[in-house]
Amino acid sequence: MSNPLLCCGKGHLTPHDSEKETLKPNKKTKKKSTNKMEPVFVNGNHIPAVCPFSGNSAESVNDKKNLRVKLNQPMKLRNYLDSSLQTLDTLHTRENDIALIESRCTRVVCSGSVIDIPRPDAVRTPEEIYCDAEKFFKEYYASIRRENSDAHRARLQEVKAQLEKKGTYDLKSPELVYATKLAWRNATRCIGRIQWKKLQVFDCREVTTAKGMFEALCTHIKYGTNKGNIRSAITIFPQRTDDKHDYRIWNPQLINYAGYVQEDGSVLGDPGRVEFTNICIKLGWKPTYKMWDILPLVLQADGKEPEFFDLPRDIILEVQMEHPELDWFKELGLRWYALPAVSNMKLDCGGIEFTATAFNGWYMGTEIGCRNFCDASRLNILEKVALRMGLETTSAVSLWKDQAVVEINKAVLHSFHRDTISIVDHHSASEQFIKHLENENKARGGCPADWVWIIPPLSSSLTQVFHQEMANYYMKPSYEYQPDPWKKYNWEKSEVKPHRKFHFKQIARAVKFTSKLFTTALSRRVKVTILYATETGKSEQYAKELGTIFGHAFNAQVFAMDEYDMFSIEHETLILIVTSTFGNGEPPANGQDFIEHLFQMQNMENELNDSQSAPSPGFRTPTPKSLMRTNSVMSPPPTCKRPLSRVESNRSTTGDSSIEHLGPLSNVSFAVFGLGSSAYPKFANFAKTVDRVLGELGGERILEIATGDEMFAQEQEFRVWSSKIFQVAAETFCMEENMLTDARNAISKLPLTEETIRFGKPSTTVSMKQALESTYKRQIIPSLVKKVKRLGDNTEDRETIFVDMQPRDVVKYDPGDHLGVMPCNREEIVNSVLKRLKETDFDVPVQLQVMKETLSPLGSSKTWEKHERIPAVSIRDLFTRFLDITTPPSTTVLKYLAKACTDVKDSLKINELILDSDKYDEWKHFQVPHLGEVLEGFPSCKPLGSLLAALLPTLQPRFYSISSSPLAHPKHIHLTVAIVFYKVRNGSGPVHYGVCSNYLKNLKENKDEIFVFTRRAPTFHLPKSLSVPLILIGPGSGIAPLRGFWHHRKYQIKELSKKENIGQVWLFFGCRTKGMDIYRVEKEQAVREGTLNRVFLALSREKKDDNKYVQDHLREEGQAITRMLMEEGGHFYVCGDCKMAEEVQQTLKQILQQHTNFSALEAEHFIMNLMDDNRYHEDIFGIVLRTAEVKNASRETARRTRLESGQSQS
Ligand SMILES: Cc1cc2nc3c(=O)[nH]c(=O)nc-3n(C[C@H](O)[C@H](O)[C@H](O)COP(=O)(O)OP(=O)(O)OC[C@H]3O[C@@H](n4cnc5c(N)ncnc54)[C@H](O)[C@@H]3O)c2cc1C
Ligand SMILES: Cc1cc2nc3c(=O)[nH]c(=O)nc-3n(C[C@H](O)[C@H](O)[C@H](O)COP(=O)(O)O)c2cc1C
Questions:
Q1: In 3D, which of 1154, 1091, 1168 has the Cα closest to residue 1120?
Q2: CA–CA distance, 955 with 704 (Å, rounded to integer)
Q3: Considering just the CA atoms, what is the radius of gyration of the chain in Å?
Q4: Does ligand 2 have an atom closer than 6 angstroms to the CB of 890?
Q5: 977 neighbors 1037 (Cβ within 8 angstroms)
Q6: Whose CA is closest to 444, among 467, 475, 480, 469?
Q7: Which of 48, 649, 681, 988 sees the fewest Cβ atoms within 10 Å?
Q8: Residue 142 to residues 71, 178, 572, Cα–Cα distance (Å)
Q9: Is the per-residue pLDDT at 67 higher than 90?
């Protein structure tokens, strides 16, 4: 066995002596080993002597006498045009990853130019398969950062078990996707590998018939062709089990022109396809004997007889050739197809062989211009063209061949370009490949490449690759040649199959009507992952709705971002994001890890890129936290170049080689919908950040980000977006129109009906604590209410209360953490809804059940299953504790209410709201109707409680910043709560009451029990050291966590064993009038005790002309604040509503500029660094106070913006 490293085609390079150092016989070459652990080779597979599969020792059959280079020696590879491109290949030294092959090279002969390197084709033993599988899974799990994990070990066990049972095993879908891309990456002869991450995989392993193969390949051709904007794709059919049941595509390429030998010996058509044309004819295909006949697809499923199928001409895109200057060129009548799709190679990965695959990229011009048109064994048009050009063809020295071939290649590029069909010229391809080598060297220490094949056939030495040394070695997974199937085929027994002719539409229709199950399987090939992050449940609701829509045509899965395995993201096909924004432009809690992971990926990408684009000195890479919390101007410029869109990257006819770097998500298509409220300064900021980062990581945005503003038409925007994205996704993945009808019908229908939902008898009863825990997936703590008292003066629109409770269980928390409270809806609203339901018994436990229909060969069967979200409690409890009946109903709920009306006038009125989005929005924001009022407005509406319960959103817990300290108030929890109440219809309607704040206000001391849970707020904790100064800013109820701080600190100081330097604590509080100065007495006492050093009170309505806000006091103390932050390591805490928090941040920026020589940008950076150091803390409540003011203003702006942009839709 010889070493493939020596076969890199160096003989074709100008003789340099650079390689001498690697070619020199190496004295340290390993001797033939007698060690039992030495690797051995069976069927060309590298098998460790002690096989982990069988545990047996295998005999060494390896003869290494030809091994002239010690494998683990890095290899210097020079570029003779640009010495800076010199690299060191270390990849080949990873002995375990390099597959040794039976090459034709010997000790004295390099066979680098031999095209067909035979690979073993014998059926593999389980031992051989396992050895490859082990290597593959090592690489796969390393790629998802799980090498040697339990999952990795378990997977190997699973593989072993499958091998023992059936002699082979199945790859999971993400593993197959990974393998196909890696095999491309390892394809030594391919110059276009810079695109290796961008490959659409059609997993067709469920196909069992030749007809099924044909349909899948038609889909592939359509998808890959994409009206000329070619997309790389691969289709994979079932793997080899034994060699009697192989799947094979007999065609060398999916699209081929026939070649017919004429009586005079000349060939009509493509001489390169004469042999295969004859095979088709032998199988019974009836040719028309014309130039440019497309050969049928000859397909063999499960080792059965091959069948042939005519390709529908309407799916084949062809280019008619013309020359930009030579008018006569088009008279030659030349053409070529747009999609080069190799279909006779085998994918070899993890020991598994996929014998039927079809893979396409896009053409490099010379493949057509030089090889197909000018090879003497192909169309051979060179002389004809030269004569038309008037060249002297009798003498080689006139270089007529060279002149003609250039014009032919110009014509090819020009014609593809004219039709805007993807093609790349050889100069650009060469530059891209050099860039790829560079990328690969950084990413994995080298890139196996076959110089003989990489250098283009035209103007070789004018391209960069010609001057580049390359190392040729063989890695798996790989694409392999395999013996021509007709050579193995038993022609004696052959049965001629009927000639089949279909149009693509017919195929799709046939698939649809003949087998519903098959349609589902077909659609399952395209996976859609829908990820949501939510705080109050809306994004989840929308994401699930989207899942239902996509489920009709795709393999759709919905996950919360924190449930999703982030390491799978690179192997996704289509990701749809639905997310809200919380805090001050931050992710909801369950989106935090997701964005951090994306930022980490981005950092890794940036590290991979060259140093010239690194951030300027002194620039600290911000953490995800600060990136999310600051304005986008503060984010570092992404160092990796903007990835090109598919259109840009594919249409590289101009010689533009700017495909510098394909990010890790370059194979992933995505779209984002962001929920938010324009009442907040950073509207839908999290969604926008996710959209940007996914794009920067190379993802392909198939639709621009859309947002739904809570202030205006959020729901309508979502509906518009969901149907648009469905359409775009269907087009992107070439779904046929008639396959989509089901989905479209489903979009306009209610997901459930009165017939498919009911209240049944529960199998067991559960306590309220258990019921809440099962719905909210939280550990609930019942707590006894000890005290509820008013804080400060009441005014007509302001009231604040203090709540003290005693949890029944031990509660661990730190000051700054949040308490989640499970509220109850007001009794009068619950009653007004219950009295309108069709059900009558409200006080016995019931279980909401949904009808599930299952299709089986025996027909359909119907069963009732528990509703996943709603627990077994009474209907009254359901509407009191679990369902949101105060938020104005969505149009989905209204749709059902319209149906539940017996008076057609009522239905019409409701339908008006559903159909006119402006009207609906106006109604929602002006009337702010709760469900009781809605039902009152439509007297004939009598809904079924079970269906209503399934359609209504879940009542959300409310969060409160804990106002107590575990040290100062053990076994108690305190809250400071601003009561929400307001008059609807801009102050002229009835009073509405905030659900939770009023629930808390009306609790009975020492009697009522409430259900709560704690939530950590690690970014709002006190620093460990007591010596650093604290600046606390919390106007109104924003004082809540700050009270916990000063009480806690008092105990911390008391417990200090030795005197320590105690930092200053300054509190900035604001309210309207002196009477509303809550906790005044406590603050005074804290000042006396020295826990608070200074307290500033900003009164905004006390005096007519001397109103102050906390920001004013901050400004006055600007110099001291600057010193505390810059010199004394101080911490800055802001708590309360979002607008105030934003204004405070801007004020601090101004202060820093005024008291230092910082520019605006430097001040921003300083604040960002404070955030990264966890010294700038924010606890944002949302818009709780000033709600009407803020809402009206932002609604007006939102409406204007929408009207101006012409987006309003009804
Ligand atoms: C992390 C965090 C910490 C918090 N800490 C505290 C705290 O310590 N103390 C505290 O008091 N609050 C705090 N809140 C706010 C608290 O969670 C609740 O949002 C608040 O108590 C209101 O809840 P509710 O159920 O009473 O009102 P809801 O029933 O939720 O009603 C509030 C909604 O009513 C509507 N609304 C209000 N006014 C009007 C109007 N004029 N016109 C039309 N619609 C209107 C708005 O849609 C508003 O969102 C915190 C919030 C968060 C996110
Ligand atoms: C405390 C709080 C902070 C918020 N912060 C923002 C924000 O910074 N930007 C924004 O656009 N929306 C913000 N919102 C509005 C939410 O994004 C909006 O209500 C969204 O519809 C909630 O969707 P969800 O139920 O999926 O979480 C905030 C809401 C609250 C209650």
A1: 1154
A2: 32
A3: 36
A4: no
A5: yes
A6: 475
A7: 988
A8: 23, 12, 17
A9: no
* Own/partner pairs, 304-307, CB within 8 angstroms, 24+ separation: 304/210, 305/494, 305/495, 305/497, 306/210, 306/248, 306/250, 306/485, 306/489, 306/497, 307/210, 307/211, 307/214, 307/497, 307/500
* pLDDT computed for residue 97 by the predictor: 75
Contacts of 136 (CB under 8 A, 6+ apart): 175, 179, 349, 350, 351, 476, 477
Task: Give the integer Cα–Cα distance in Å for 319 and 336.
Answer: 5
State whether the Cα torsion 63-69-74-79 is positive or negative: negative
Closest among 984, 893, 989 to 941, alpha carbons compared: 893
Considering only 10-24, 166-180, 580-594, 957-971, which range has the smallest mean pLDDT?
10-24
How does pLDDT run across 1093-1136, given as a tens digit for each residue?
A: 999 999 998 877 778 999 999 999 999 999 999 999 999 999 99
Q: Residue 336 catalytic? A: no
Q: Note the pTM of the prediction, 2 decimals.
A: 0.73
| Length of the chain measured in residues | 1210
Nearest CA to ligand 2 atom 17: 676
DSSP 550-595: HHTTSEEEEEEGGGS-GGGGGG-SEEEEEE--BTTTBPPGGGHHHH
- Tens-digit pLDDT profile for residues 869-901: 899 999 999 999 999 999 999 998 999 999 999
Query: Active site includes 335?
Result: no
Q: Are 1134 and 1019 in contact (CB under 8 A)?
A: no
374 carries an active-site annotation: no
In angstroms, what is the span from residue 417 Cα to ligand 2's centroid?
48
Residue-level pLDDT at 712: 78
Mutate to test the pocket of ligand 2, among 558, 578, 672, 680 (most ligand atoms within 8 A of CB): 680
Taking only the tens place, the pLDDT of each residue in 797-825 is 789 999 999 999 999 999 999 999 999 99
Quote the Cα angle for 500-502-504, to 5°. Answer: 150
* 853, pLDDT greater than 60: yes
Parallel, antiparallel or unpaired: strands 973-978 and 958-961? unpaired
> CA 759, CA 875: separation in Å to the nearest integer?
9
Query: Residue 366: is its pLDDT beyond 70?
Result: yes
- Name the active-site residue from 38, 206, 367, 1117: 367
In which band, very low, low, confident or very high, does the pLDDT at 72 lie, cut at 50, 70 and 90? low
Active-site residue identified among 190, 280, 374, 447: 190
Q: Decide: 449 and 471 in contact? Cβ < 8 Å.
A: yes
CA of 680 to the centre of ligand 2 (A): 8
- Which residue's alpha carbon is nearest to atom 37 within ligand 1? 1187
Q: Which residue in 1110, 1107, 1103 sits closest to 1042, CA to CA?
A: 1110
Structure tokens at 365: 């011009």
What is the residue with the minimal CA distance to atom 7 of ligand 1? 960
Determine which one of 124, 193, 836, 1049 is catalytic: 193
Please give the Cα distance from 235 to 516 (Å, whole number): 22
Q: What is the pLDDT of residues 85-106, one digit of tens each?
A: 888 999 988 877 787 776 778 8
Is residue 868 within 8 A of residue 884, CB to CB? The reply is: no
Separation of 586 CA from ligand 2 center, angstroms? 9
List the beta bridge partners of residue 475.
98
